[in-house]
Specification:
Layout: E1 3-7, H1 17-23, H2 30-40, E2 45-52, E3 55-67, E4 71-81, H3 90-104, E5 109-112, H4 119-127
Parallel strand pairs: 4-5
Antiparallel strand pairs: 1-2, 2-3, 3-4
Helix pairs in contact: 1-2
């Protein structure tokens, strides 16, 4: 394995759609995901890829903001690593790389949301020092 972590340029954001589709709601189509990602890259958003040589095997979005309770923070979004690359320490290396990257940009905290049913991810994040602070609620208004 030749693992590298790289920022995915905005003009190449379409490469993440197949990976994110694997973890998203089945009713969200690939064309809709692509449309949303093309809009996201125009906001305070970056996307980091995990590459094995030239093959994209993992991804995480980063939303940059300032919050009253955590200061300058980055929210991890749609964190995903292909099944064949899991349970090999790659997730910890990825989060550590992200932490160093965002700290170098002057950010103070990392936050994320995890689906309630995704217990393995909860255990992973807790082992990595994340603390549960609350629930994330969504209400569609469209």
């Amino acid at each position: 394995m030749q693992i590298q972590f790289k920022i995915i340029p905005a003009e190449s954001i379409d490469v993440v759609v197949p990976l994110v589709k694997k973890m998203s709601n089945p009713s969200i189509t690939e064309p809709l995901l692509l449309k949303r990602f093309k809009e996201m890259v125009t906001q305070n958003y970056e996307c980091i890829g995990v590459y094995d040589a030239e093959k994209l095997v993992g991804v995480s979005g980063l939303w940059f903001c300032t919050r009253h309770y955590s200061g300058r923070s980055v929210e991890l979004d749609h964190v995903f690593i292909e099944d064949a690359y899991r349970n090999k320490g790659l997730g910890s290396k990825f989060v550590n790389w992200i932490q160093r990257y965002v700290k170098s940009k002057g950010y103070e905290a990392i936050e994320l949301n995890a689906y309630i049913a995704n217990e393995p991810s909860h255990k992973f994040y807790e082992r990595d020092g994340f603390q549960k602070l609350g629930y994330h609620f969504v209400k569609e208004i469209g």
